[in-house]
Amino acid sequence: DGHGYKTNTVTNHVEPNPAPVKVVVNSDGTNIDKTSVSHGQTVTYTGTWDLSELANHVFTKEELSHNWSFDDDYDQTKITANQKTLKVTDKSGKDITSQLDVNWNDKDGKWVVTPKDKAKFLEAYKGQKLTVSFNSVVKADATGDLTNTMNQVNDDQGYKTNTVTNHVENDPKPVKVVVNSDGTDIDNTTVSHNQEVTYTGTWDLSELANHKFTKDELAKAWTFDDDYDQTKLDVDLKVKDAITLTDAKGNNIFDQVTLAWSEKGGSWSISPTDKAKFLETYKGQKLTVSFKATVKGDATGTIANTMSQTNEDHG
Q1: How far is 248 from 246, CA to CA, in rounded Å?
Q2: Rounded distance, CA 168 to CA 97, Å?
Q3: Measured between alpha carbons, how far is 33 from 179 in angstroms, rounded to an integer?
Q4: Whole-model pTM?
Q5: Tens digit of pLDDT for each residue in 220-231?
Q6: CA 88 – CA 140 distance, rounded (Å)
């Protein structure tokens, strides 16, 4: 009789694409994306495996037959990855790595994790953002920029994270000069008995401009030192300005370091009194260290001198 009867209305929410996110942190857990890293430094790559939009999803047999995974193609030429540190945690921080198969190709710098039981895994963790992380060490010969991007695969569809980048710092290059009382470079020349000479070195912190120091790094030695020939040189560092330290602008900053001097052993070393403050202030600079010496009246032969810079126990 022309009467219409409507059914109930069915509704489905369209899930946005997953948005996995990548972070690189140092040993303190500080985000160091777009900063510099040093040779031998440990960095941790962390990604979010984003299943948050699947909270109300009912998985089909076809979907479960497809690829659901999380992977990384890292630069094995610049970092050494520690496979034992690969870990996946749920939203509460619980380690769920045992529920996954890990396929790691160390030669090509690739790994992929896939659920051992897809149906069980996806039902358990749909609606969550899982965390995937692993540690790596910057290789001693690494140069240039170090980049990393992770990838999430849902139902055969790949979704890349953002890319994180770190610049690998070059090793410091301290330089040594010996000058006379006029400030003239006298390297490879002769000197007379009782002549005053000044040895000058650059304390090279220039590569550290964008470095974020960790507690572990700050616990190690950051020094500048000299082991001079006390049999041929008289040195008295108790005399005012016998040893100086200046910043890139020529400001005297010797009051910010501690001097250890062995007159008998012919050696001295300076170290920051407050390492954290000193390195944050002068990172990115080349400092100048100078000390005065007098050639002994009975000195003979050749006087050689080499200074040494130590960064994080490496000299």
Answers
A1: 7
A2: 31
A3: 43
A4: 0.90
A5: 999 999 999 999
A6: 28
